Predict the structure.
Amino acid sequence: MVKADVAIVGGGRMGQGIVHAFLLTGVKVLLVEVSQNAASAAESAIRQSLVKGIERAAALGQNHVLEVEQTITRLSVSTNISDVAGSKLVIEAVPEDFSLKEKVLAEIDAAISSTALLASNTSSFSIRDLGLARRYQENFLGLHFFNPVPASLMVEIVYTPENPIKVIDAAATWVKKIGKTALRIADSPGFASSRLGLILGLEAMRMFEEGVATAEDIDTAMMLGYKHPVGPLKLTDIVGLDVRLGIAQYLEKNLGARFSPPKVLIDLVAAGNLGRKSGKGFYDWGSDGK
């Protein structure tokens, strides 16, 4: 059995970033993926991310004591969810599909102890709904990380009435350990960040659709006028148009028509233009996603 303090199930972009952040704290981390090929690819991407982190620090004139090879030895990879047994914190980070998350959480649930903290990295789904079938509902909550995780400054702790204060505090301690600010958010569709960020993104899409301005000028208006680090349309490309469409449809169902996805978003997703990961969305990212 693999022994790790923290286990992340799902090795996509978000899962990789979460692993990276926890490796920097010195704890042992387990990454669980669906296949050995996927696990190996994720491990390679995490190694590259650690190297880039050192290069960025050096470019800024910062001393960086991180040794990639030493750090990566604290990472284990597995294709067996039962290996999460014994971990103090287990984070589900699979794609934003409610049925998939339920399935994966049930498999994690069967392996962990009553003292483990279990979290979902969902960006919009109700934590209470995801937790209905959990054996230890009091220890299940949301930890909504932001992309890119290593550089982000905050994590939303999404709690339900089932969570005692000591569990929320324990989650906040983990968030502080990775050097981020913990925001305590009561469970509601879209939480705080996704709900606010999406409504801005949807309005930007409508403006683009109506020919009010180009994607570049809409984004620049928010960057220069409101000091956003990246504009709402480029952010949509980075997050993934399919992801944002799914969130919009979920929030429309739960919160009303103000979250109705614009036709341009529906059409781009139908055409396979999903943003950076596909090479094209509101912007042309090229084959290397840059």
